[in-house]
Design brief:
Elements (H helix, E strand, L loop, with lengths): L1 H9 L2 H8 L4 H13 L3 H59 L5 H4 L11 H15 L1 H4 L4 H20 L11 H24 L5 H4 L2 H11 L8
Helix pairs in contact: 1-3, 2-4, 3-4, 4-6, 4-8, 6-8, 8-9, 8-11, 9-11
């Protein structure tokens, strides 16, 4: 701060103006403080004018940084909450059907998830829609149904990879083919999800989630190879 005051006392207004235009937005406030202490109205006006010029740029930069942080959270949290939330919801529903009440985390361990795997993707789709509708960042995307379908496909893929049993609409292949299919579907689902969040691609495939669902259904048919 002392250096700022010394610089201002030795500089002409022209030199001061040139130097001010080279400073960052945050550094300008140090100069403004020094100018106010020096009671230099001309220099105060010069610094304030430069701050006013940079303020919209800084505001836009901050908005972009906040949007980037929200994107990172969405990419990390939405798929995890959708898939594992679907697993949790499926277990709770099964427990409620058996016991007429919802169960604790410990109580849910008594539920055999293997028998429920075909139902998990549908629960995940509902969970994905609820999250997309509840989270203001995702709600602004106006792709709630598309995220629900993506959650369905994503959940199928995760189950296929983790349990070696891809819950297809028409066939559930063996462990090897399940993981092959799951790997393909997982990749497509994540690419589609990322584009929903960013909006970078506008081709027909990304207009809505139905092509993803159709491709997933088509890829599932690889499972019939085991019966040839």
């Amino acid at each position: 701060m002392k250096n700022c005051a010394e610089n201002q006392s030795e500089e002409s207004l022209e030199a001061f103006t040139k130097r001010i235009h080279k400073l960052s937005y945050d550094e300008l406030y140090d100069e403004l403080d020094a100018a106010e202490k020096a009671e230099s109205e001309e220099r105060i006006a010069i610094v304030e004018k430069r701050i006013d010029e940079l303020e919209p740029i800084e505001k836009k930069k901050k908005e972009l940084q906040e949007e980037e942080e929200k994107l990172k959270r969405a990419i990390g949290m939405w798929p995890l909450f959708t898939v594992f939330g679907g697993i949790y919801a499926t277990r709770q529903i099964a427990y409620y059907i058996q016991n007429k009440q919802f169960g604790s985390t410990e109580a849910l361990k008594t539920i055999n998830l293997t028998e429920l795997l075909p139902y998990v993707p549908y629960a995940s789709a509902v969970v994905g829609i609820i999250i997309a509708y509840s989270w203001s960042y995702l709600r602004r995307k106006k792709r709630t149904l598309d995220l629900g379908i993506t959650g369905l496909c994503l959940s199928k893929a995760v189950i296929g990879l983790l349990y070696g049993s891809f819950p297809g609409f028409f066939i559930t292949p063996g462990a090897f083919l399940s993981r092959v299919i799951a790997g393909i579907v997982l990749t497509l689902s994540l690419v589609f999800m990322y584009n929903i969040f960013t909006g970078k691609r506008t081709e027909r495939f990304f207009d809505n989630a139905w092509p993803l669902l159709l491709i997933t259904t088509a890829i599932e048919q690889i499972g019939w190879l085991e019966h040839l």
